[in-house]
Write the structure tokens for this entry.
Amino acid sequence: MTYFNTISKINYEGAGSTNPFAFKFYNPKEEINGKTMEEILRFGVAYWHTFTMDGSDPFGSGTMIRSWDKFKGMDLAKARVEAAFEFFEKLDVPFFCFHDVDIAPEGDSLRETNQNLDIIVSMVKDYMKTSKTKLLWNTANNFTHPRFIHGAATSNSADIFAYSAAKVKKGLEVGKELGAENYVFWGGREGYETLLNTNMKLEMDNLGRFLQMAVDYAKEIGFDAQFLIEPKPKEPTTHQYDFDVATGYAFLQHYNLQDHFKFNIEANHATLAGHTFEHELRYARVHNMLGSVDANQGDPLLGWDTDEFPTDLCSTTLAMYEILKNGGLGRGGLNFDAKVRRGSFEQEDLFHAHIAGMDSFAVGLKVANKLIEDRVLEDILDNRYMSFTDGIGLDIAEGKTNFHELEQHALNLGEVKHQSGRLEKVKATINQYLLRAYTGE
Ligand code: XLS
Ligand code: NI
Ligand code: NI
């Protein structure tokens, strides 16, 4: 059965195209430094936002019109798999991602849930045999069901800790079965609302032990995916333990897990943490911890995770700058953890949204690549930090000095001359590069 009957394969038609069902900038075959756009950008579709969620929000019920919704239960789950692979093929996208509960309904017991999962996983596996779309990552949803009311690996209930472990164990087996490139841990309820009833030390130690057991089990079954922590500062809990990359990195180091994990960085989580998207990418990159990206954007006027499709070209440019400087995303990708707005309820909106996101990152890639080729930001940094390339600055940078010498240096200083940071000039230059991506000059 097919579900997107009015839409055929999305092709690249170039910047001048007026066809809404065509890529204007994303040309999967176009090479940039010897790699195709498809290989660099590694786009993924998020199963939950695109095939499972219905557009409901805390104030209103679902609005999405989906041709697979005429089915129920396991039939619905199967219809979604069919719809998903039709969508992947029409969009020509190399990856997808899912939580366990997105693909198969929970049963009355964990045993039954696992059986449901097995049926759908084998169906997905069959589709994957003839599809080019691979699994970027899977994860366990250990936050939606009421049993996770007080957390999962950080629950006060040891039984729930065990239940959560069983779900992740299954997730690792599923990931192996489907050849997932990565496995994600987003701590949806791994945090707390108030310290008044929370044993923070025990919860964090338990989370550390939980992640170590996951590492051990993956090794035991020979599942070699890259493990990823997805930081988020809050929502649903008030204080999440993986607040941002810096916090998550300190956590991993404390529990000696840093060699087994990288980060999956989501743009909207970065801004919720009071950072820019590129801050989080940079922090991960300079520590060699950049794994993958949940490509979306937030609404600066709203204080929550709105998961919009990314369309801000300045942001995609600065993100692609970090990714290119990282030498790419390795086994990671750009997963659209993004949803169409509640008012965009028609099925074709799913295509418009993904086309918009893919084109925006394609522009970002081209502009970032040109900025790097021309050493625009590199020259600014070289010039700005010149004082560390000789004399006392070089001694500092090489760790060869001490407070005695530094004091001597300071005592002999005249007035220190500063240079302008030239921020407005830099911003104007980036705008110029962005515009040149359209005019082709
Ligand atoms: C929620 C998260 C979630 C993770 C996967 O805010 O972004 O969707 O990506 O559990
Ligand atoms: Ni996410
Ligand atoms: Ni999110």
